[in-house]
């Protein structure tokens, strides 16, 4: 017996007009259809219909995480600062972190992600190689004081994430755990009905080496990625270090000496610079017209601004805040990363046309170079030209013209390696009786964001349009008329419910059929079953929400069809 939800008793208030401040489809439609309500900037309340969809997404995530052996736990969101101080992230996160004090004056934070705490949990619970490998996950509320919390539930300051962490004693074990998550993510996004691409990414503030993002193409997305129409190459423009092509090689020895007629690859660059290929853009300075404009250092290294300052004429540097930069990659030519923790210096360059993207690697406020010391980590003469990826640029894998697209980051998987294990000395006793340092992976899915991404990809001019897997109900029964219609609608709804079908039935009195139809389309349940004109004969009309196809059916036929 599935739930039969009566609209007459459901707390749902639909709106004819978009909320005044809404820019994105998910914001407009989820509010208009009564799924969510804005409580404050980037802070959302999930109303009954919204909560159902959210829970359906969470269920799919849980099922697939359980299927790869994940064990669900629940960590606190309110966290002591010490573990984050130990990892350096208490400082590194800067303004993104919500910080607070308790009554005794001790420092706390609201968790933005939980690598530190999971590492401590495993250190406490696992002592031998026999206790590993282990995959832990939670679906939990995260807090990030995003610079521009807009775009509805797509970018919240409070939001729900599924974060998983793998713990292994060997690199092969980590690779295996990574592959398991990659597969689980593919199944999750397929089941949810999201169109997505897997792209190479930079690991940014997380640290670690290999990292891939799951991107859902949509105009409302805040990431730009390149996609090859001819092969399977795809990368976030933040990570297209492979596609470096010299704009001009004159006077730039690092490029000049590369004896390759083709696009330099990361391997040829790395070889030239004498660094391992895994170093990506580390140790790279970027100059434009003789000026250092960027330090291509994704990750957690400090730029020594004092040293860099010698190379920058202050008059030529425009000071803008990190907030100004968010989402404006098209305006920014380069950056000199962080001065203090929140203010980042950027050089805005109007010569870069809108629609193109900046690619030195770390181009977000939470992605800036830290702990890099000039002279130790790079030499001032190691530089390359500024490169901008544009649509049509040759694919680094096959040479075909690249496409450039906007997308929503719905998931992100990282091979963290031993960064956090080193911080917290996470060792287990190895097979030979000696301690082994544990290696970790970290894997996130934006659960609330996935709901928004679904709306961005699937809604149409009439409203929301859910797939069966995530819809708040399987069938929306509409009583379009008076007593006869309502009686039939409730009767059919009851029978469907008894057959295990999740039903929403619009039994509201004093609401016109026109309004009910409009609401049904807006709410977006996949099948709409109308008790209308021919109700007295027991004939219903079934309408497919997506295709709009209609068909007349008897009660028995409708029940057989839908259950
Ligand atoms: P973004 O680039 O959009 O800021 P992120 O790279 O900072 O995201 P991660 O740290 O990789 O995010 O977190 C894992 C996942 O959590 C992301 O892939 C995304 O789906 C989700 N997520 C991150 N920030 C938010 C947010 N502010 N609101 C909703 N979901 C988010
Ligand atoms: Mg972010
Ligand atoms: Mg990101
Ligand atoms: Mg990410």
From TrEMBL:
GO molecular function, one term: ATP binding
Domain Aminoacyl-transfer RNA synthetases class-II family profile: 52-472
Subcellular location as annotated: Cytoplasm
InterPro entries: aa-tRNA-synt_IIb (IPR002314), aa-tRNA-synth_II (IPR006195), aa-tRNA-synth_II/BPL/LPL (IPR045864), Anticodon-bd (IPR004154), Anticodon-bd_dom_sf (IPR036621), Pro-tRNA-ligase_IIa (IPR002316), Pro-tRNA-synth_IIa_bac-type (IPR004500), Pro-tRNA-Synthase_IIa_type1 (IPR023717)
Gene Ontology cellular component list: cytosol
Keyword Ligase set for record: yes
Pfam families in UniProt: HGTP_anticodon, tRNA-synt_2b, tRNA_edit
Catalytic activity: tRNA(Pro) + L-proline + ATP = L-prolyl-tRNA(Pro) + AMP + diphosphate
Keywords for this protein: Aminoacyl-tRNA synthetase, ATP-binding, Cytoplasm, Ligase, Nucleotide-binding, Protein biosynthesis
The protein's Enzyme Commission number: 6.1.1.15
Key word Nucleotide-binding present: yes
Gene Ontology biological-process entries: prolyl-tRNA aminoacylation
Function (record text): Catalyzes the attachment of proline to tRNA(Pro) in a two-step reaction: proline is first activated by ATP to form Pro-AMP and then transferred to the acceptor end of tRNA(Pro). As ProRS can inadvertently accommodate and process non-cognate amino acids such as alanine and cysteine, to avoid such errors it has two additional distinct editing activities against alanine. One activity is designated as 'pretransfer' editing and involves the tRNA(Pro)-independent hydrolysis of activated Ala-AMP.
Membership in a protein family: Belongs to the class-II aminoacyl-tRNA synthetase family. ProS type 1 subfamily.
Domain notes: Consists of three domains: the N-terminal catalytic domain, the editing domain and the C-terminal anticodon-binding domain.
Subunit structure of this chain's protein: Homodimer.
Name the UniProt record assigns to this protein: Proline--tRNA ligase
Organism: Streptomyces silvensis
Gene that specifies this protein: proS
């Amino acid at each position: 017996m599935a739930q039969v939800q009566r609209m007459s008793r459901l707390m749902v208030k639909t709106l004819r007009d978009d909320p005044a401040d809404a820019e994105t489809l998910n914001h407009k439609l989820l509010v208009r259809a009564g799924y969510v309500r804005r409580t404050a900037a980037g802070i959302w309340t999930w109303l009954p219909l919204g909560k159902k969809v959210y829970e359906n997404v969470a269920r799919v995530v849980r099922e697939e995480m359980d299927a790869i052996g994940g064990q669900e736990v629940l960590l606190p969101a309110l966290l002591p600062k010490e573990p984050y101080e130990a990892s350096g992230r208490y400082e590194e996160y800067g303004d993104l972190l919500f910080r607070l004090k308790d009554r005794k004056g001790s420092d706390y934070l609201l968790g933005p992600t939980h690598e530190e705490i999971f590492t401590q949990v495993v250190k406490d619970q696992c002592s031998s190689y026999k206790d590993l490998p282990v995959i832990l996950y939670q679906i939990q509320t995260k807090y990030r004081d995003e610079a521009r919390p807009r775009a509805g539930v797509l970018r919240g300051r409070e939001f729900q994430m599924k974060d998983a962490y793998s713990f292994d004693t060997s690199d092969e074990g980590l690779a295996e755990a990574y592959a398991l998550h990659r597969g689980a993510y593919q199944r999750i996004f397929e089941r949810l009905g999201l169109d997505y691409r897997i792209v190479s990414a930079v690991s940014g503030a997380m640290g670690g080496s290999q990292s891939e993002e799951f991107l859902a193409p949509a105009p409302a997305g805040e990431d730009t990625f390149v996609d090859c129409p001819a092969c399977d190459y795809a990368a976030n423009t933040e990570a297209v270090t492979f596609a470096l092509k010299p704009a001009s090689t004159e006077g730039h020895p690092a490029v000049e000496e590369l004896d390759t007629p083709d696009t330099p690859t990361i391997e040829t660059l790395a070889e030239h610079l004498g660094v391992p290929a895994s170093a990506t853009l580390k140790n790279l300075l970027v100059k434009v017209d003789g000026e250092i404009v960027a330090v291509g250092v994704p990750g957690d290294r400090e730029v020594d601004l004092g040293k860099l300052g010698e190379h920058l004429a202050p008059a030529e540097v425009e000071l803008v805040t990190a907030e100004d930069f968010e989402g404006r990659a098209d305006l920014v030519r380069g950056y000199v990363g962080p001065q203090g923790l929140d203010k980042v210096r950027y050089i805005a360059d109007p010569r870069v046309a809108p629609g193109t993207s900046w690619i030195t690697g770390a181009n977000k406020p939470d992605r800036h170079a830290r702990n890099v010391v000039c002279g130790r980590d790079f030499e001032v003469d190691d530089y390359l030209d500024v490169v901008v990826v544009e649509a049509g640029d040759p694919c680094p894998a096959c040479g075909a013209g690249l496409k450039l697209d906007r997308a929503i980051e719905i998931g992100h998987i990282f091979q963290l390696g031993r960064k956090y294990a080193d911080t917290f000395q996470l060792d287990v006793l190895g097979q030979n009786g000696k301690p082994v340092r544990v290696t970790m992976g970290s894997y996130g899915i934006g659960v609330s964001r996935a709901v928004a991404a679904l709306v961005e990809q699937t809604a149409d001019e009439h409203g929301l349009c859910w797939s069966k897997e995530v819809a708040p109900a399987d069938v929306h029964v509409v009583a379009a008329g008076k007593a006869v219609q309502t009686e039939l609608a409730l009767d059919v709804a009851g029978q469907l419910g008894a057959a295990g079908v999740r039903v929403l039935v619009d039994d509201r009195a004093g609401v016109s059929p026109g309004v009910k139809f409009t609401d049904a389309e807006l709410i977006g349940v996949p099948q709409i079953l109308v008790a209308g004109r021919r109700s007295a004969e027991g004939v219903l009309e079934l309408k497919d929400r997506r295709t709009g196809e209609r068909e007349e059916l008897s009660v028995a036929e409708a029940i057989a069809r839908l259950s």
